[in-house]
Write a structure and sequence with these properties.
It is a single chain. The protein is of the alpha+beta class and 147 residues long. It folds into two domains: 1-31; 55-143, no CATH class. The protein is built from three helices and five strands. The protein has helices at residues 2-30, 115-118, 130-143; strands at 55-56, 60-65, 71-75, 99-100, 104-107. It has a three-stranded antiparallel beta sheet, with no helix packed on it. It has a two-stranded parallel sheet with strand order 1-4.
């Protein structure tokens, strides 16, 4: 009989400890402290601007923003476009529009392609990282007069 009283007393003590711990944790979680707000992004349906030369984007596989807030993308170009989307580049052409854009593109903040840096930045992107691609574009910029 005595052992049952000890078991009941231990059980009640355990419930009290759990209740106090629960209350303390709730108060700590509800107290105003340093909270971190996740960034909120909004889609701009008009970004980027229409591409020149009847270009279309394929599946985008890489995005990078450089220190000047230019947005760099690598995409799969014509490899992921259907034939009815890239009729101008088929042999023989099946239409006047369209063709895959170069695999690396650089957009400014407004969503436009800077003309002086565009000259088909890189023909084959395989094996290049974005830092190397950026270095190549900077070299092209230095060789050409700014618009």
């Amino acid at each position: 009989m005595k052992s049952q009283k000890y078991i009941v007393a231990a059980f009640v003590a355990l419930l009290v400890v759990l209740g106090c711990t629960h209350t303390a944790l709730e108060q700590r979680a509800g107290s105003p402290g340093e909270t971190v707000q996740a960034p909120v992004f909004e889609v701009d349906p008009l970004w980027p601007k229409p591409l020149p030369n009847q270009w279309l984007l394929g599946m985008t596989i890489g995005v990078w923003v450089d220190e000047d807030d230019n947005v760099w993308i690598i995409h799969r170009s014509s490899a992921t476009l259907n034939n009815n989307e890239r009729g101008a580049e088929l042999n023989p052409p099946t239409g006047e529009c369209c063709r895959g854009a170069p695999p690396v593109l650089v957009f400014n903040q407004a969503g436009a392609l800077p003309g002086h840096a565009l000259k088909q930045v890189v023909d084959a992107v395989n094996g290049l990282d974005m830092v190397e691609v950026h270095a190549q574009v900077e070299k092209l910029k230095a060789e050409h007069v700014h618009e």
